[in-house]
Amino acid sequence: MVFKSAMWIWMPDSTCGRERSAPLFRREFALEGEATSAILRICGLGCYEAFINGQRVGDSVLDPAQTDYDIRCLYARYDVSSMLAPGANCIGVMLGDGWFSQELVWSRSMSYGEPRMIASLEIKTAEGATTQIVSDSSWQCSRGPVASNNIYAGETYDARLERKGWNMPGYDPGSQPRHFKWEQCGVAEPPGGRLEEQQIPPMKVIELLRPLSISEPQPGCHVVDMGQNFSGWARIKVNALPGSAIRMRFAERLDGNGMIDTASTGLFATNVEQCDTYICKGGGLETWEPRFTYHGYRYVEIAGWPGKPSLEDVIGVVVHSALKPAGSFSCSDEKLNQLHGMALWTHRSNIHGIPEDCPARERCGWLGDAHIVCRYSFYNFDGEAFWGKFLDDIETSRLRNGGLPPFIAPGKRNWGNASPDWMAAMILIPWRHYLHYGKLATLEKHWDGMRAVIRHFKEISDNWLLPHGLGDLFEPGLTPAPSLTPPVKTSTIIFGDCASAMSSAAQALGQGDEAKVFAEWASCIRSAFQKAFYDPVKCSFGSQTADAMALHCGFAPEGKEQAVADSLAADVRMRDIHLSTGIIGLQFIFESLTSYGHGELALALMRQESHPGFGCWIANGATTLWEYWGGSGKVDAAHGPRSLNHPMMGGFDTWFYNTLAGIKPDAQGPGFKRFILAPHPIAGISWVDCVHHSPMGRIASKWELKGAEFKWRIEVPPGAIAMALQPGCVAPVAVQPGCHDFTSAI
């Protein structure tokens, strides 16, 4: 038991009154001899910063990642051997509310209680002695300079209340009488969850952004344009009189007068603005950034600044889970490169321990958004641990929810039983995770949940049709609900896709009988769908989304696939090369068109400048993907302006990897032990250069198209086999590890 006699401790309400401040904790101890090994394990809920002898422990921020705290809590492990010294030492911890004590937004019922922490420092000395310093009632606590903090609303920091040396040995708590007193810590009730070591990459400061410009639309009101919508916060450098309050408000857009417009960040839903306040101590240049909040923004409005801030005084700090990049894509078309970059910025803005829906308004792990995003996430980032953690979040949330997944995981804002198209994440993400990373343990771990979900789908289906669901949200228009593709179509195809995935997963797990059952279910679902919705005259299922999904998921009648693709293409042309899809159809339409000979049309859709189209977003200043297609400047009157940073619109990014470059996993060799290389050159794109760092190693697909000559270079990692299909060929060929060049006429 790594924490042994450690206790959960907190700052009791009687200690100065917390009022959303971030309490300080300290513990001095003596060390006889030199430390040869020192391991600190700590869980601070909601989030924390730890110090030893005044030095910051690690470089992670906003740790630990959010979980269902009453079921599991994550702790971090640090090697702090070099931070200790013989003699007097001190551990200090600053504790923020994070998600654990978040009760300001949505409702007070979101909170799990007051902030608390548990820590254990195990030390071995050169003399062979072992010492353990643990959190208990001997620690001291007090209020500090973080006067208030909330993960949504922001942070207020009063630098006049800083405790110089508070996390150092020899500190005299009575030396600063103007400050709050130090008191004995209270022993807190455990949050209820088991302690698990955090295995995912922590959140970190990833990069710094220099502002593009600073304007002054009103006297004393300065607006900083970072030039990019992203997640994080602002770092400021200021020289001001003691007590000067620098107030920063964050937003994604400006109004017509050049002032920030906070509506799209969800004010209508959260009733709070993203706002940080720094109160200066005076006496020289001060540098500050928050600790226990983050924002989704491009623009910062600053009030209270002495004079005018310069471009060097305000820095954008990009913060998200430090996932290692696992892919790169570029091509001859700069519009496609720009859209790929926008998809990456959007995804990066929404990975903070979980895959979120937006970095400002909700910050929730909506399951439908997650299974739409996961494919393009796998190509771009090493997400094995990150997505594995989120699958565990779905698992704990479904157990809290009576056995079926809720709409949101983790946390208390779960919205009850998810609709089938959102609940499908419990099946689709584990299966895709297994395909991409090759870990059978993923399927084994979540098999019970996967079976519970597929059986639930069958129980609520009507003759194999699944009439329930949120559907293809955010078709072009002003409201989120779909009108062109009824939810019964999207939910039934997803039901069938899940049944096929369950059959393949059961086969991988050695459960042949179940594999046959689920394969039969998939066949029945396809037949029922075709009978109910296929129009043999139009060779269509009635919408772009339904046709694109049917082609991708194998729901088109046998031998009619090309006819369905042609009908899909005809619908696109009938709309003057415009999409009519929402978030579900958007992830499949480019693949389906390109795979059946309509690549040039898919490219024209990607390049579309007018509404609804990506070019319309860009023309309106988008640097990330919006929540909806927009409606000629109007907004949904019932819900307010929509988010301008939503990864659920990013499913199209998969097309760059698995269709243009042609890199696909293969169920016959999961984890890219065996994989498919089948590029689709398109007139109008002269070259593609794509790399994916798979579990087996580097995979590359680079091609060049000159007239009718197609040159292709591929790279297969050691231990893997690629099934390479050149354009125009009927059958793939097995390609061994190494670099290979192909030339053909197309």
Structure write-up:
This protein is of the alpha+beta class and 746 residues long. It has four domains: 9-200, Galactose-binding domain-like (Jelly Rolls, Sandwich), CATH 2.60.120.260; 204-321, Jelly Rolls (Sandwich), CATH 2.60.120; 327-655, Glycosyltransferase, CATH 1.50.10; 674-745, Maltose phosphorylase, domain 3 (Sandwich). It contains 15 helices and 35 strands. Strands 6, 12, 13, 17, 18, 19, 20, 23, 24, 25 and 26 form an eleven-stranded mixed beta sheet that branches. A hairpin with a 2-residue loop joins strand 30 (687-694) and strand 31 (697-706). The longest helix is centred in the last third of the chain and has 22 residues, at 487-508.
What is the element layout, followed by pairings?
Blueprint: E1 9-10, E2 24-31, E3 35-45, E4 47-52, E5 55-56, E6 60-61, E7 72-79, E8 87-96, E9 116-125, E10 130-134, E11 140-142, E12 146-150, E13 154-158, E14 183-184, E15 186-187, E16 194-197, E17 203-209, E18 213-218, E19 221-239, E20 245-251, E21 253-254, E22 260-261, H1 267-270, E23 275-279, E24 285-288, E25 295-303, E26 314-321, E27 327-331, H2 334-348, H3 367-380, H4 384-400, H5 420-423, H6 425-437, H7 440-460, H8 487-508, H9 512-533, H10 544-553, H11 561-574, H12 583-595, H13 599-606, H14 614-619, H15 654-660, E28 663-665, E29 674-677, E30 687-694, E31 697-706, E32 709-716, E33 721-724, E34 733-735, E35 738-745
Parallel strand pairs: 7-16, 13-23, 29-33
Antiparallel strand pairs: 1-15, 2-8, 2-11, 3-7, 3-9, 4-5, 4-8, 6-17, 9-10, 11-14, 12-13, 17-26, 18-19, 19-24, 19-25, 19-26, 20-23, 20-25, 21-22, 27-30, 28-29, 30-31, 31-32, 32-35, 33-34
Helix pairs in contact: 3-6, 4-6, 6-7, 7-8, 8-9, 8-10, 10-11, 10-12, 12-13, 12-15
